[in-house]
UniProtKB/TrEMBL annotation:
UniProt KW keywords: Pyridoxal phosphate, Transferase
Domain of life of the organism encoding this protein: Bacteria
Aminotransferase class I/classII large domain sequence ranges: 41-382
Keyword Glycosyltransferase: no
Lineage: Bacteria, Pseudomonadati, Pseudomonadota, Betaproteobacteria, Neisseriales
Gene3D superfamilies referenced in this protein's UniProt entry, alphabetically: Aspartate Aminotransferase, domain 1, Type I PLP-dependent aspartate aminotransferase-like (Major domain)
Matching Pfam families: Aminotran_1_2
Cofactor needs: pyridoxal 5'-phosphate
Protein name (Swiss-Prot/TrEMBL): Putative 8-amino-7-oxononanoate synthase
Amino acid sequence: MTVWNDFLSARMADKIAADNERVLTPMARDGLYAEVAGQRLLNLAGNDYLALGARRDWQHDFAQHIAAPEAYWSSSSSQLLTGHSPSHQQVEQTLARLFGREAALTFASGYQMNFGLLNALADNHTLILADKLVHASMVDGLLIGSAKFLRYRHNDMAHLHALLSQHHSAYERILIVTESIFSMDGDVADLRQLVAYKREFANVALYVDEAHAIGVRGATGLGCAEEQDCLADIDFLVGTFGKALHSVGGYVVCSDLTRQYLINHMRPLIFSTGLPPINMAWTDYVLQRLKDLQAARTHLQHLSQRLIEHIHTHFGDCVSQSHIVPVLCGSNAAALARARALRQHGMLVMAVRPPTVPKNQARLRISLNAGLSVEQLQHLMACL
Ligand SMILES: *Cc1c(COP(=O)(O)O)cnc(C)c1O
């Protein structure tokens, strides 16, 4: 084993020397709070954007009315064998109805969804144009797939247009890949502009990941595509249940043909156990009630605007246009020191470091949720 231990410890020494070691911290969560090493901290690091984790009434109501076929804690099989339960079918139907689309399909996680979809959808006659800052799950799917892919500068529509003009005739198909709210900067893609490009070039389709926007944006909580009034124009509209929806898994809303194709071609869907029916039933419970959470969405938007203005005034530029608000610190050590200081004031905020963000752009990533009061926000701003 010594050769292996030497290899592992040398690579860990590099991480530690760069202030870039990651550790798993046990945390018990309790509504808006997380308990870390005996200290109760206001949780500003999670993705429970609508604070549904604190909705004991919903959790209680759900548990009371659960039907026998939903009370299964495992699907015990891939969805292609015996793992596609009535709850899975129900979630697909609810998604299709809410989004006004023919079909939907669910996946065990958002990572699996992006990774599997992107390499199933494209071949070597396809060009993928992806925003420079898309999530690792999309990058990994592109790296393993056979399509050629290029990155355009983050949210730089002129750069994207130049790449489209230059390449559109050399490929049979082009897929533009973006997030709507970006996970580390909290800024928002111009989906309407992307739709306009799709109309300009006949062989272009759009793939948009709404992981951080589902539940949070739009008049009924369907995300930025609803807010920007282009739901029907996104060919592959994906998102996750693990953030604002306080559940687990990923989804795509799409055409019947796309769904049929994915069931036959998407390896992580075919070769992995489906989500437990109990989780799917909870997801459906939340989806059915999304439209009723407009007050929470408005409150979250209000908190976000106040924090963004505060960062702008005291720290310079703030790119965020959402509830995800970065505070750039530069070095890893500086970001870690800031996060430690906030902990001493009772707040849990994570330092995000490379490779999650570019080198020398280590930052605090503050993620707000609709359960926070204005007083709690003011306390955070004072401590910053
Ligand atoms: C969190 C996230 C994912 C991954 O979703 P999981 O369900 O956690 O695997 C995918 N895309 C984006 C943009 C995300 O932020």
